[in-house]
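Dear support,

We are seeing what looks like truncated structure output for some complexes. This example has two components. We would appreciate it if you could run it in full and send us the complete token output so we can diff it against ours.
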Amino acid sequence: MSSYLTEDEQVEALKKWWKENGKSVLSGLILGFGIIFGWQGWDRYQTSQGEHASMLYTTMENQFASGGDDQGTETAKRLIGEHSSSVYATFAAFQLAKVAYQKGEKASAKSHLQWALDNAPDEALAGVARLRLARVLIDMQEWDAAQTLVEGAGDLMPGEFARLQGDIAQHRGDLDGAREAYQRAILQGVENADLVRMKLVDLGDGEASS
Amino acid sequence: MLQNIRDRAQGWIAWAIVILISIPFALWGIQEYLGVGSEPVVATVNDNEITERELDRRYQQFRQDLREQLGAAYRPELFDDNRMRQEVLKRMVREDLILQASHDMGMRAGDSLVRQTILGISAFTRDGRFDQQTFERSVRLQGLTPAGFEERVRQALLSEQLSQAVQGSVFVTEHELNEAVRLNNQTRKVDYVVIPSKNFESDEAITDAEAAAYYDEHQTDFRTPEQVKLEYILLNAQSVGKSAEATDDALLAFFDDNQEKYGRPEERQASHILIKLAEDADQATLTQVLARIGDLKHRLMQGEDFAELAKANSEDTGTAENGGDLGYFGKGIMDPAFEEAVFNLQEGELSEPVRTTFGYHLIKLTGIKAGDVKTFEEARADVEADFRKAEGERLYFEQAEKLADLSYEDPSSLEPASSELNLEIIESDWMDRNSAQGILRSPKVLAAAFSEDVLLERHNSELIELGQLQSIVLRVVDHKEASFEPLEVVKETVLGKIKQQRAAEKAEEEAEKLLARLNEGAALAHLSGDYELQGVDAAKRSEVSMPLPLLRKVFRSPRPEPGKVVSGLAKLNQGNVAVFSIYEVNDGSMEELDEALKEQMKAQVRSGLSRNQFNSLVEDLLGHADINYLLSDPED
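Here is the complete output from our reference environment:
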């Protein structure tokens, strides 16, 4: 192993090595840079898409805020059409549901909320959609559908869902179930808790906790 | 052997090893440039770090906001610094989390949106338009660069969007509104009697053992809080002024300096004609101007109208239109030469040509408003009061400094300060933290009085600034630890309480008996006997004619079945007991409400819903996030 290599021999060895390994080195480099630039490009694309959706959303908000319901609705629909997987589309659906309900178009409100529930890119937002949809269903007296939704709720806003559970049980004449559900709602934290307490008292529980 | 190493170091493996070794050397210290890991971190939120410096800056900002909001009520000594920092940090974590979540959800705020928002911030506008300089100045005042500020706006936009998207789209369903109205506006028909405990008071003997038992059970009622007795020196500008020396000479000098305060000075009205002349004008121009002004003067002497001539000839364009009228003015306003001329003329008299920096004037005095100047003797009382006030303000700071020094040099007594500054030492009554009176109630004073240095070491306090040119130095002369009043001292009170308690128990027994008979089917109207029967046909939840504990109880009772009655009792204040019967419950309905009330109800239900939905969203984020607080909690 003690042979001296002349410069020529060294060059020769290098060439030989390159012949053997050059391809894999080059393809490795190409792959590496490809991933880096590809990722950056994807990120830029995502950002520009997000920014565009954000701009549309702000425009929509302003339109609704200044009383332009028709323009707002149009922008919201465009937002949902062009950026259906974006979180802004979910926001737009929330807003459309509100506007529709306030106009008395309950079925339309329901379908917007259903869309939000199916498409929300975030679990917590899907939970919000689920809660709202269940409330509209109760309002529309679609008790079975509401029941299914309430039962499928995760651990988000347990108090709010318990309250809906109580409403459904009360409607079905299951007063014990309603009482239990309302008590659970108060315990787990529910907004307008005073109202829930009143419901509880109204069911004949004289010792409602204060 | 070296030869051997050299031989072997020729292969490409050796080169690879050398390159690998060189990497750490090349990158050594790079974190200094990237700003990673060099600062103390107070919390981590998922992968993000919140540094101590960020917290400090936010905390400063927070305190500043608080000061602006509270104004004079801002009392830094009332705040627990560490607890507040924890609170601010929690808020930062929450914000950071919302920001991260919004980013993960794919929310973005582009440059154009950020720009649009900044352009709309009214603080950066001047004359109704966005002003770059104002923007940069305001931003730097907050310790930020414009780019940093834009980043802030971007973040604020995102969390605003998220909260608005969730809270702003909440709506109340008809079902919910009906339910709320039905229950909230429910009324109940109710009869009741109040059984006063007074009727059952008796002089039945109370044994010592009973008294002792009551005393032991209610010991906290007989506790006296920690008390101190203070000595203090109060310094304020008023008293400093009062004791200031007010010699006649000083007063006279003050009077002369401030004469305008003691009466209205004389004012004169004049008209003028100006022929302009530059100060460095050459001889030829001067001769020319003098000729013109001489000519004008001559024409005026002939009886021509001053106003007409002024209009035609005066080069003071501002007044020429009005015939040269300058209106009324006092001394110290006009050019000195002009003023001298005006104040030496008789009314209606015309001046010689007067040279000022503007040129040559002809002046006519058209009116005199005589000044109402008081003499020193007439104004003396006012002068002295004003002089003392001014002296007080001037000397206050000097004296306050002396007071601070003197009371610090001998921390065991206020005497030296008192005699040196001729200030009285005042002694307070016994006081605790809540019973302090007057200026001693100031939280700063209380904090000092109960501080270790003053209370235990019995040192003089520092000089405490109370604002409005008032300050105080105090020391504790006596101190009582918190204590329990012995039974002997409070025996009368204890006996009275027991008596009341017994009467209340008897009233309740009586009420129970009454209730039992009601539950057997008797009517309250027939049983009320000695007690006055009272009734409300439609008691609301907000009924004011009924005692509150009774009203609560009535609305917590179940609904009577049709034709039946629900009865109960409620303990009122002072041991009185009410017995009631509910005959009917009537639900509220939407039809009874006018539009305004409907809207109010809707808003009430909605605000609850929206708040909760956003909060639970954030709670959910908090629950799933990996948060570490690294700031040491002083209470742990």
